[in-house]
Model the fold of this input.
Amino acid sequence: MSVKLTEEQNKLIEKIAKDNGFSDYELITNPGSEKGDNFLGILTTVTIKNEDKRLELILKAAHQSEAFRKAAPLRVAYIREIFIYEHIFEEFKKFQEEYNIPNPFDSYVKMYAASTLDGHECFVMENLKVEGFKLWDKKVPMNAGHISKVIKEYAKFHAISIALKHKHPEIFKELTKDITDAAFQDGNNDEENKVKFESFIKAVCSTASKAFEDDPVLTGYFKEFESAIYNFVATDFKDPEYKQVIVHGDCWCNNFLFKYDDNNNSIQPSLLRIIDWQITMLSSPAYDFCYFFLAHSPKEILDDYRTYLNLYYDTFSKHLQHFNCDPEEFSYSRMEKHVSKFMVFGLSTCLMVLKIMLADSEEAPDFQKISENGDLMEGMNFEVGNMDAYKNRVKDILIFLKDNNFLTN
Done:
């Protein structure tokens, strides 16, 4: 089914075609995602081709629904993501080249062009699926090879922030001045932010609590979490101690594209690309680590938590040393303390994202329609068809957190 592009989108495609040597060409457009795959954008696959060559692209555009734009910070999110591609990734690339970094962080897609026109925010990037990159099956916990790959790339990404802040503090300050808070927060309205967050927690907890309603110990422990998460967001989340690095922020599996040396063997990916940088902000390295680790690890990997924290920190410290920085700039014990704080936040995010990961396409909430009738967070009050899988995943995570005393500090 062909997709009709807007005037602004056509201008971007025409510019890309010209920049890449196309004069006469055919344009093919098709829907680029299914319901439940992407919530703050509309994805369209775009092919520019002539007799000699073709260019495969993905167009990501903000919803134009007035109700949705009022309910969700779409403009802020798109401006932020475009900024990440145009400035932060470019600065990080230049900084790594300055120090001739071996195995640099480059796990992001190429962006060809973007528009920040109000109401028409969009950008065009390379289509990696035609190059053999694949999404992980979101209904299945990740294996060790994939979890290790993501953790190592996050570690390198975070290390660049620490090194840049140490070597070029004025550049780091300029890069992060407009991303100190989450894109979904209104920096001028703490009370409204509080109400929205309380609505979010209520929505995700209503289903999660059913996973252990017959277990009084876990039920009591979960109540501790509900108290802890409000306190964390009101205090710790804003603490300068936890504003150390630029984080990805949106760590669910549909934002990772993997490629394999052997397409018949998908156990160990050789390449990774991380997408969707709309929630990127200044935070703790534990933000990405905890969110990703809790949301995607099966029980056996949760139980082997120390191995993966050590893998993260070993990669992080080696990348820092390539910049001639002492890893004590952000020590292992400091990382442990951050992880202990951010596990409560990781739980809050994975309770939401697990529902989406385990839901069938037709079960996933349609946030555009929901925005026309009320609070977006009400859209999280749905039950997935496979509730047994959801309950088992949530229960495994909560037992892991309880056994490691993560919600008691």
Notes: Strands lie at 26-31, 42-49, 54-61, 111-115, 122-126, 134-135, 245-247, 256-259, 271-274, 281-283. The longest strand covers residues 42-49.
